[in-house]
């Protein structure tokens, strides 16, 4: 089923390994084949991955946009294990993420990881408020 995408002026889109930047006007186009893509707003750059959950998101991004490798999958499992060890309350998020990854549903895993990043931020905020 074709997917219609609308881009804001100068918005960037990654399709597979290709980066596309829109021009100065809003535009729309249709993706007619199945492919992996992310909008600029859904991308965390390596320099922005300053927390454990953001680094997990970065790993999921690589798995989603590139051909998954055993090395990247192993890194995902190690990162998830470290998060569970540090904060067991993250278990529902991690369980969902690993389940989606096991099913090769990396986009769904990315979306769930965004929830995890928000949860991580709320934990950090509570910790800062209690100090």
Please state how the strands of the largest beta sheet are arranged side by side.
3-2-5
- Unreliable segments of 5+ consecutive residues: none
Q: What percentage of the residues does DSSP assign to strands (E)?
A: 15-25%
> What structural class should be given to the helix and strand makeup?
alpha+beta
Taking the sheet with the most strands, its summary is: 3 strands, antiparallel
CA(first)-CA(last) distance:
52 Å
The helix-strand sequence is EEEEEHHHH
The portion of residues assigned to helices is: 40-55%
Protein name: Flagellar protein FlbT
Pfam family, one: FlbT
GO molecular function: mRNA 5'-UTR binding
Keywords: Bacterial flagellum biogenesis, Cell projection, Cilium, Flagellum, Repressor, RNA-binding
Notes on the protein architecture:
This protein is 52% helix and 16% strand. The chain contains four helices and five strands. The chain has two domains: 39 residues, no CATH class; 86 residues. The radius of gyration is 16 Å and the shape is globular. By secondary structure, it is α+β, with helices and mostly antiparallel strands. The protein has a three-stranded antiparallel beta sheet, with no helix packed on it. The protein has a two-stranded antiparallel ribbon with strand order 1-4. It comes from Methylobacterium gossipiicola. GO terms for molecular function: mRNA 5'-UTR binding. Keywords: Bacterial flagellum biogenesis, Cell projection, Cilium, Flagellum, Repressor, RNA-binding. This is Flagellar protein FlbT.
């Amino acid at each position: 089923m074709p997917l219609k995408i609308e881009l804001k002026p100068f918005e960037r889109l990654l399709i597979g390994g290709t980066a596309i930047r829109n021009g100065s006007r809003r535009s729309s186009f249709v993706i007619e084949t199945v492919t992996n893509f992310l909008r600029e707003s859904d991308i965390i750059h390596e320099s922005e991955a300053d927390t454990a959950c953001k680094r997990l998101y970065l790993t999921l991004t690589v798995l989603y946009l590139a051909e998954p490798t055993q090395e990247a999958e192993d890194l995902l499992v190690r990162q998830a294990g470290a998060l569970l060890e540090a904060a067991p309350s993250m278990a529902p998020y991690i369980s969902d993420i690993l389940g989606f990854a096991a099913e090769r549903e990396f986009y769904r895993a990315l979306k769930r990881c965004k929830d995890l990043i928000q949860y991580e931020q709320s934990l950090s905020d509570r910790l800062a408020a209690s100090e």
